[in-house]
Amino acid sequence: MKALKNTILGIVGFAALYSCSTNNQENKDEKATIVEVYSPTENNNKGFNLSGEVTAKQTATISTRTMGYIRKIYVKPGDKVAEGQLLVAISSDDVLAKKAQVQAMIQEAEAAVKNAQRDYERFKILREQNSVSDKELENVALQNTSMKAKSQMAHQQMNEVNAMLAYTSIRAPFSGVVTQKMADEGSMANPGMPILALEQHGELQVSATIPENYIQYVRVGDTAQIELNSQDIAITGKIVELSPSAYRTGGQYSMKLAINSKDKTNIRPGMYASIFIPNNTKERTSSRIMIEESSIVHRDQLTGVYIVDEENQAILRWIRLGKKSGNRVEVLSGIRPNERIVLKAERKLYNGKKVATSK
Question: How far is residue 226's CA from residue 243's CA, in Å, rounded to a whole number?
Fold first, then answer.
């Protein structure tokens, strides 16, 4: 009996202690956390999205058509060069030796031409005097013609040597900036081997590909919205080039968009771009819910946001994200347009936490 009495007293004491603890917790949570909320935006624009890349309007891979050691590279990546500026010098001793041989051939051929021409003039006079036959004059004329042909051949060989010699002194095909250096001085240069990469300075464009199911909605001259996520830049571009064929490209049509010069600040070739091309077709109506990136909560591999329900409680809602656009992110599922999303909170939130919205 005594043991039963002690047990009852213990249960009553525990219940009282639990009640006090619960009251203390409720008192502690009575003060609501101040939060700043916003409603997601809904984009009802009609169109479709593509991925692209910023490229230079004109690019060139610098190489040579002759074999030889790279004697000197006069530039490095980042250097600005002018059209015709000397970039690379290739060892040209063998070409110079060949040039000397051809020069000797030209001198020999020109001497033979002079001699054949004098013989022909002399035989013409002798034929008028009937001192030689027609056959002898004809042979001398053919010899004169042959010597002239050999002289022309020697001069063409000199043109070939000069062309080869030009490839030992590689010059910039246009004004631009050196972007890559793929070989070093002392390396053996082979025909077609890339040595430098050159891009036209300041002239930028955005290159992209369009799937075949969208190509019917795109025309040259159409405008597009371009966003560079790495720089948080949004600009407008115009389609200036559109491939008419997707042969051997897997149904992808290449496209290039021009951007205004005033928008090129801080934009560099190689940056990835998000492209939105609007159109007026009902088939491509796109409604997107966008939220602020700073309001997203990451838990391991899950992403979510805190919303404020009708009872002013913070509720963690798991969501599925889509494409990023500047400092906003598309929500594919988990959020409705009329919900209140927590942007900032003065203290850490958890499910069921009482909150009050800032004014």
Answer: 20
In sequence order, the 6+-apart residues with CB closer than 8 A to the CB of 15 are: none
Domain-located, residue 67: yes
pLDDT tens digits along 259-288: 886 767 778 888 888 888 886 554 444 567
The DSSP secondary structure of 159-200, one letter per residue, reads HHHHHHHHTTEEE-SSSEEEEEE---TTPEE-TT---EEEE-
Judgement on whether residues 137 and 195 belong to the same structural domain of the protein: no
The reply to whether 207 and 280 lie within a common domain is yes
Separation between Cα atoms, residue 114 and residue 60, nearest integer Å: 47
The structural domain count of the chain equals: 4
Model pLDDT, residue 11: 46
Distance (Å, whole) CA 308 – CA 345: 12
Q: What is the CATH number of the domain that holds 266?
A: 2.40.30.170
Burial 213-222 (b: 16+ CB within 10 A, else e): ebbebbeeeb
pLDDT confidence of residue 142: 93
Last residue within a domain, chosen from 232, 261, 284 = 284
Residue 20 located in a structural domain: no
> pLDDT digits over 159-185, tens only?
988 888 888 899 999 998 999 999 999
143: domain range? 93-166
Judging by DSSP bridges, how do beta strands 33-38 and 353-357 pair with one another?
A: parallel
What is the Cα–Cα distance from 300 to 127, expressed in whole angstroms?
Answer: 107
Helix axes 93-128 and 134-166, enclosed angle (nearest 10): 160
Within-domain flag for 10: no
Give this prediction's pTM.
0.52
176 and 80 in contact (C-beta within 8 Å)?
A: yes
Are 266 and 303 members of one domain?
Answer: no
